[in-house]
Design a protein that fits this description.
This protein is an alpha/beta fold. The chain folds into two domains: 50 residues; 244 residues, EAL domain (TIM Barrel), CATH 3.20.20.450. 48% of the residues lie in helices and 18% in strands. Strands 1-2-4-5-6-7-8-9 form an eight-stranded mixed β-barrel, surrounded by four helices. It is globular, with a radius of gyration of 20 Å. Bound molecules: ligand C2E and calcium ion (2 copies). The site of one calcium ion has 4 residues, from strand 6. The site of ligand C2E has 21 residues, from strand 2, helix 3, helix 4 and strand 6.
Length: 301
């Protein structure tokens, strides 16, 4: 009986934000999806052991000078599943957030990213900060700060080099508790990038009470900036807000040169997106570091 209720609830959830129909059926398509999701949850531990998860890195370029300069990277997880091929994090991250598995996976990514900063430092003599995603679920863990501090210490890097991306909607879900967690992380030396800015529901007056060190504009804002003057002006206004808050702005999902140039004129500081590069495995990412070193000598300290 309980199973039937669960399935009805699942079918019901599919109706969320649809206003044209008022009923749905639990059909074989939903059933297959449910089985697939259950399989992924069951496979997770083994996948970690068998190194099916790999961390890719997408560069972020500082565009405030004459030429773009590689300034950091974002760590993004990929799952190479033996039966299903490459699975996007958009599929499995929400599943793992529902049952606590995310903690284990995020910890793995943080450790890999910290190790990567160290490895590149030893190999190239530069420190390229890397940002990692911190799931909203992680933010409720009272030992989060200690864990991260341990990870950076074990890898011989500093807290300021492992940047933490926290999605805007996590701030708004439970703002007091999240704000307290963010303050504790910042006191421990970590820098916070507010991710997906504009996709959640921060009210404007809340912005001044939230603390963060950089603002990552949600991709949705970028899509039409070259064809829609209102969209471009809106981005300009958000950049002004960031100026008021005295934090740099990172635009992600930048795919075209025209978008990059317009963002530069609007005062955006950092760009991430396919225009520069897709997320890459470490052995391909090193070519970007080498290229940067050849062009500018050293680009970061
Ligand atoms: P996100 O943090 O907003 O990451 C940006 C996503 O946009 C990435 O998708 C990236 O590959 C994609 N992207 C980058 N540049 C472009 C572009 O120019 N155009 C377009 N269309 N897309 C671009 P990805 O890697 O599939 O990750 C999806 C989401 O999964 C991430 O969104 C993040 O919320 C989550 N995620 C990924 N890795 C992790 C992780 O290690 N831990 C946690 N908690 N979440 C993760
Ligand atoms: Ca992110
Ligand atoms: Ca984002």
């Amino acid at each position: 009986m309980e199973l039937h209720f669960d399935r009805a609830a699942l079918a019901c959830r599919k109706l969320r934000n649809t206003y044209s129909t008022c009923y749905n059926l639990y059909n074989s398509e939903l059933h297959d999806k449910e089985l697939f999701h259950e399989k992924l949850i069951n496979d997770m531990d083994k996948a970690l052991e068998e190194k099916q998860f790999r961390v890719y890195y997408q560069p972020k370029y500082n565009i405030t000078g004459d030429t773009p300069v590689l300034s950091s990277a974002e760590a993004l997880i990929r799952w190479f599943h033996p039966d299903h091929g490459m699975i996007s994090p958009g599929v499995f991250i929400p599943l793992f957030e529902n049952n606590g598995l995310i903690h284990k996976l995020d910890r793995f990514v943080w450790d890999q990213a910290a190790g990567q900063i160290r490895e590149w430092k030893d190999r190239f003599g530069i420190t390229l900060p890397i940002s990692v995603n911190v799931s909203r679920i992680d933010m409720f863990d009272p030992t989060l700060g200690e864990e991260l501090t341990e990870i950076v210490a074990n890898n011989g890097i500093t807290a300021a080099q492992l940047l933490l991306e926290i999605t805007e909607s996590a701030y708004t879900d439970n703002s007091q508790q999240i704000s307290a967690a963010v303050s504790a992380l910042r006191s421990a030396g970590f820098k916070i990038e507010m991710d997906d800015f504009g996709s959640g529901y921060s009210s404007l007056n809340m912005l001044t009470s939230l603390t963060f060190d950089a603002l990552k504009l949600d991709m949705a804002f970028i899509r039409n900036i070259c064809s829609d003057s209102k969209a471009a002006r809106l981005v300009g206004i958000i950049i002004e807000i960031a100026r008021l808050l005295e934090v740099p702005v990172i635009a992600e999902g930048v795919e075209h040169k025209e978008q990059m140039e317009l963002l530069k004129t609007l005062g955006c500081d950092v760009i991430q997106g396919y225009y520069f590069s897709k997320p890459l495995p470490p052995d391909e990412f090193v070519h970007l570091i080498e290229k940067q070193q050849k062009e500018n000598g050293y680009a970061y300290s």
